[in-house]
Amino acid sequence: MEQASSPPVNFWGSTPDAEEFYAAAGVRNTKAFVDTPYGRLFTQSWHPLSETSSPRALVFFTHGYASDTSWMFQSIPITFAQWGYATFAADLLGHGQSDGLPGYIEDIQTTASAALFFYKSVRDGPEYGPEYAQKKKFLFGESMGGGLTFLMLLQDPQGWDGAIFSAPFLSVPEPARPSGLRLLAYGLLLGYAETWPVMPQNNIQGNVFHDQEKAKIIRMNPRRYKLPARVGTMRQLMVLCDIFEKRCGEVLTPFLVLHGTGDTCTAHEGSQMLYDKAKSSDKTIKLYDGFYHSLLQAELKENSERVYMDIHAWIDARTSVPQ
């Protein structure tokens, strides 16, 4: 009888090893744990391998719900590094190798603050010296990470030269919204139910992955949260949506927001609202007819290439040519 094949070690497979993979991709990867006032975060960076040219700018990436920075999500900052950008990311609290109960968001503002603490430590810290201090700094958020990026812009409105939102979690389609009565009932248990993984799966599923082969790889992630959503997590995601509705007009930072109209996980109407109400003088929206939620990790190849092309053109137009 044939033995079941073991899952791959990395999203690209079991070979080559990580060092060879990054070298072949033309990037240099570093990993570190960073202590924040809110908990310990696992962080990574990807730099262009060439030591002869300076990076165009710094970009800080925030992943989505149930994900982390060590599986297929890292293909996004790797691509930016191949374009000449220095890129950084952290596993969110309750995700990947960072502190916290897996899949649990106790407080959405704290989750944003923890990642922002790391980003600012790079942006404002002495590690990379005056060379990086002169570079422009951008935020990138995918899905829930897009919602957290929105919160970061509220918490630190003057610190960024631009932001990119990929299918941001800012508004939820009605069929995917958690039952208010269910959340109210669990709330009557004085906090005991907040960590229970009992929310219906339809609240976080839908048209997420268009390319089913890539979807299989994403689901192989050994650190991916696979249980039903925790009560407190869904409650905090609704808090995020409420904050967005009340404060979306406060965004002043230049931004690009991208969303597929076929996405039934997050509502593209939220991205439209951000574009319509934000006070940014430089703002761009791209709506892709029929595209699903995962625009860069698991969209059809020709579709993801189109999205990447739009992102590349937008950020290159707002950064200086490396010296």
Folded structure, characterized:
By secondary structure, the protein is an alpha/beta fold. The chain has a single domain, classed as Alpha/Beta hydrolase fold, catalytic domain (Rossmann fold), CATH 3.40.50. The protein is 34% helix and 17% strand. Helix 3 crosses helix 5. The chain is globular. The mean pLDDT is 91.
Short description:
By secondary structure, this protein is of the alpha/beta class. The protein is 34% helix and 17% strand. The chain has an eight-stranded mixed β-sheet, with helices on both faces.
Total discrete domains = 1
CATH topology (level 3) name: Rossmann fold
Number of strands: 8
Low-confidence segments, given as residue ranges, are: none
Query: How big is the Rg?
Result: 19 Å
Spatial sequence of strands, sheet with the most strands: 1-2-4-3-5-6-7-8
Mean pLDDT: 91
Q: Tell me the distance between the termini.
A: 60 Å
Please identify the top-level CATH class.
Answer: Alpha Beta
Number of helices: 10
Structural class: alpha/beta
Summarize the biggest pleated sheet.
8 strands, mixed
What string gives the helices and strands in order? HEEEHEHHEHEHHHEHEH
CATH architecture: 3-Layer(aba) Sandwich
